[in-house]
Structure formats: structure tokens, C-alpha cells
Automatic annotation (TrEMBL), chains A, B, C:
Xref: InterPro entries: DsrE2-like, DsrEFH-like
Full protein name: DsrE/DsrF/DrsH-like family protein
Record lineage: Bacteria, Pseudomonadati, Ignavibacteriota, Ignavibacteria, Ignavibacteriales
Transmembrane segments: 20-45
Keywords assigned: Membrane, Transmembrane, Transmembrane helix
Organism of origin: Stygiobacter electus
Entry annotated with the keyword Membrane: yes
Keyword Membrane part of the UniProt annotation: yes
Amino acid sequence: MVEKKKISIVLFSGDFDKAIAAFTIASGAAAVNYDVNIFFTFWGLNVIKKIKHRNATGKGLLARVFNYLMGGFKNLPLSRLNFAGLSPKLMTNLMRKRNVATLEELINAAIQLNVNLYACEMSINILGLEKDDFIPEVREILGVAKFLNLSEGGEILFI
Amino acid sequence: MVEKKKISIVLFSGDFDKAIAAFTIASGAAAVNYDVNIFFTFWGLNVIKKIKHRNATGKGLLARVFNYLMGGFKNLPLSRLNFAGLSPKLMTNLMRKRNVATLEELINAAIQLNVNLYACEMSINILGLEKDDFIPEVREILGVAKFLNLSEGGEILFI
Amino acid sequence: MVEKKKISIVLFSGDFDKAIAAFTIASGAAAVNYDVNIFFTFWGLNVIKKIKHRNATGKGLLARVFNYLMGGFKNLPLSRLNFAGLSPKLMTNLMRKRNVATLEELINAAIQLNVNLYACEMSINILGLEKDDFIPEVREILGVAKFLNLSEGGEILFI
């Protein structure tokens, strides 16, 4: 039996454009029958927060301030030329116009294609969040050892 | 017959310093006989635009504004301490002074060493660009499935 | 005899949060018996500078200005929401409060676990630095060919 090819992405960034890159690679790879894992860590956790808008979740004042400022899925900034959040909206419009999948569509496609979503234990602890703060498709909260174990035998990209 | 070692770089960033890192790795690897692929996507496309200066290319007003603001090869910013573009110029001077290859020299070296240059289909669609907007050394415009196929059996770096 | 699993990190970034990510992966991997290499390049060199504060080291005026502005270990900025250096301090406090290892503790753990630290020859030349400017745990200053050789047969992450 031939083992399936595998690709694992550490999504550290919460930038709109990098999230698009990550989910384009993830859903593209899953479509050609790769096993795909995405590990969300630090700013990347914003992409999978259940509440999609700015929201002061988390335990402790500092954590709440950070979580508020980080925003959620609808507040991801562009890594360059963000113009206070205008650019991600313009870019989404461009993507619709060109019939390119938007970020929301890419995430849904990835979920349909059984891309495995995991969240990083340490960043969740720092930010005082818990499993219930994330969309239900997140399978597990895990640390580095488990992540390396799941990624073994495939490529790892840090985005 | 031993298969050649392979390294593939997804160049997402259009930062001057990251482009230097990518082409240093690429030409260094090619020099020790690796197969090397670079896939230019999003901001990284600026590095291989034919017209090297700011230029409002692309179809549609929004795309033209983005392409103008992104600039071209001569307008790559530094990822930190950019000072409105002054730093890349200062750094190029430092590189000349220290006899380190400049970005232009690194790109030329990579081309001489048969590094394969590819451009990402989806970002080109979003930005309303076409193959003719890029330097002729770009071999092909391609999507994720083809990219994974070409990268198979080697390392992948996301820069 | 089974060869040890291996992971190599190119730490290009000098951001506080990315350095934490790099050292979390490095020490976590070393703890489960991976061979781990970190190659510090460009801004990443700040993490291993011997003098931990802002300091105008380097040969030549330009290099000295860059080195001063880059700061050192205690001046690593957050990649987002840095607030003039306040955020890394707040985040370190949060990490202490949550009993998560701080960056300094992570670096010490990595060293204890025999993570190999290397510095990039080319960036050191550009910045006019030398081996003696770095902490003694840095094993060697090396170029791309040697780096690829050391990384062979394992994963490579670019951070």
C-alpha cells in the first residue's frame, strides 16, 4: 500500500493574504489527495475564532486587550498596503469579480476536503482562550511533539 | 541513477531582504547541483515583473491601483526599517562594498544556474496580469497541483 | 541503526513572536529526540548577539547605523501591534503569569537540549559583524552549501 503524500502548514500569521495563501495550498493539495494539516498558532488563531469580529475574550485584562486588538476572521489585515482594513475588502471584491475563491470559500473548501485543523496549545494558554472559542471543525488543541508526530513523513511550511 | 536533490521556494513576499534570502538559497543550492524551483506568488510577483518601476498594469481600476502601489523590482521595500525605500538602496551599497552579490546579481546568477522560475496562476488572475508582464525567464504560469507535483521529493520553503 | 529525525530552521526574522515560535519548535523537537539546527540570518541575528541592547557594532558607518537600529535581544519587536516595544514586555509578563516559558527560557532550554546554532556568513559580512559579536553557543558561521548539507534528510522551515 502506498502511503498518502502529506503536507502540514504552521499558520503563524493572521494576515489576510497569507491566510489565502495557506488555504489555497491546503485545499489544492487536499484536492489532489494529499493528507493536509494546518496548525494555527499566535495570530493565525484569528482565522479560526468562532466569533468573527473584534471581541475581548480571554482570561485576564492583558489577554482580553490582545484578543480585542487582534480582531477575528473579519478583521484580518493585509501584510502590506492594508489601509486600515480597506484593502482586504477590495481584494475580496477583486477575487469575486475574477471568479477566484474568497478566503471564506477557501476555508469551507478545505473543511469539505477533510483538511485537518489544529490549534496550538501554548499560544492558546498565553491568550487565555479555550477550545470553545474556536470553530467546531478544529479537531484538537496540541503541542509541538504531537504536531511533529502528525507532520512526519511530509512537507512542513511555516506561513 | 541517483535522483538530484531538490529545493522549491514559494516566494510570497515582495520584501527586498526576503527576496535576497530566497535568491541566495536558490543560487547557492543550484551551485551545489540541486534542482531548484521558485514559485512567485502575491507580492513576490513584483520581483519578476518585466517593467521594473511603478506602473499601473492590469485589467480593471482596482487591479491597476494595486499594481501601481506594489511597485516593481526597483521598489521592493525592506521588511523592517524601510525608511520610504532608502534602506534597500543603502543595503545594496553595503553589499557592493563588501563584495556580496546584489539582488540583481543574485537573480542573474540563479537564471544562469538554471533555477526554474514559475508564477502563480491565482494571484496573476486577481491582479489582472498576464505572462507577458513578466521577464521571459519565467517558464510557466501554474496552479497548486502542478506546483506540488514539481516540488515532490524535495524541500519546500515558504518565504 | 535508525537515523535520527531532523528539523532545521532558518530564522530570518528578528520579531519577538517569531523567535518564540522558532525556539518553541526547536526545543520541542529536541525534547523528542530530533536533531535540530537553527540558522540565524539577517534580522534573526539579533536574537544571538552577545550584547543584548542597542549597540552600534560593525565595520563602517552604514553597518553601525543598521546594527544600532536593529537593536539586540532585548529590543525584538512584535510582528504586529508592537506599540513601540511595549507589547513584547506585556507578552513576556503574560507568559510568566501562565507559566509558559519566556523567550530567554526557551533559548536556554534549546541550548541545554543541544540545538545547534549557526550564523549566516553573508548577512554577517553585510553587517560588518564577526563571530565574537555573538553568544559563544553559536557553533559556526557558514554559507548556503554547508547549511543545505547539514539540513539534508530533514525538514526545513523558513521563519
